[in-house]
Amino acid sequence: MTADQYLRTVLAKYSTANGAAQHAAAIANELAPYIREWAGQYLVSLEYSGSYAKKTALAGEADLDLLISLSSVTPNTLQEIYNNLQTYLAAKGFITRRQNVSIGLSYKGYQVDLVPAKRQSQQGNDHSLYVNKKGTWTKTNVHQHITLVGNSSRIAEIQIMKIWRNNRSLDFPSFYLELVVLHALSGQPAGQLANNVWKVLTYIANDFVNARFVDPANANNVISDLLSQQARQQIANYAKTSLTATNWSQIVA
């Protein structure tokens, strides 16, 4: 078995074709009535904003990210919107978690992140989000993120690197990881899975720690600031160890 063949068998093991995607859709549909009731006339849409939207989802990753897009004429401040969503969900019996830009809750085995966002205008997909940890706000464009990753021809490499991360229980936010993979493989040919994954691991081992990554939809939103220098160094150290492996099963399984 070649290295590429082995990695393809690993991807097949984590494929969402076994019903995970349908289960996620069912969870979203069950939560939708609550969101519609909470948002009322100001709801524009409720949509996937994470791995399911970007086609990088893995079976066994019980995470579901949903963007609650609110009209630009929603009267509340971003902080009020964030707080009101948590208050509403708690009143409905959900156990909630205040996260950076989302309200988290556990529902039927899924960790669901609900991201309330206000459109910046009546047209377009630029949104403003409340940043709970800093008590401020930021701009982003989830549709741009989805297009960037989903059309990148790097889905397999991203999924393998997510599996690598999960195998080691690393704190490495998915969008940060996706940006790293895209950067590391800039100019590299598509379809050479093992060579490309090796290229990503080499980049992480040697150049990742001090590299600066920003939100492509907002240059003021520094994604690499999500992790401390120490956390980035830990990821780099794991990559260095992986590069010493004698077979691919020691890298991802």
Report on the structure:
There is one protein chain. The chain is α+β, with helices and mostly antiparallel strands. The protein has helices at residues 3-13, 20-39, 51-54, 78-91, 142-150, 155-167, 174-184, 193-207, 229-242, and strands at 43-48, 63-70, 96-98, 103-107, 110-119, 127-131, 136-140, 214-215, 218-222. Helix content is 44%, strand content 19%. Strands 1, 2, 3, 4, 5, 6 and 7 form a 7-stranded mixed β-sheet that branches. Helix 6 (155-167) crosses helix 7 (174-184), helix 6 crosses helix 8 and helix 8 (193-207) crosses helix 9. The model has no long low-confidence stretch (mean pLDDT 93).
Total count of domains = 2
Strand content: 15-25%
Helical residues, percent: 40-55%
CATH topology-level name of the largest domain: Beta Polymerase, domain 2
Report the total helices. 9
Q: What is the CATH superfamily label of the largest domain?
A: Beta Polymerase, domain 2
**Structure classification:** alpha+beta
- What general form does the structure show? globular
Any descriptors?
alpha+beta; two-stranded antiparallel sheet; globular; 9 helices; 7-stranded mixed beta sheet; 44% helix; 19% strand; Beta Polymerase, domain 2; 253 residues
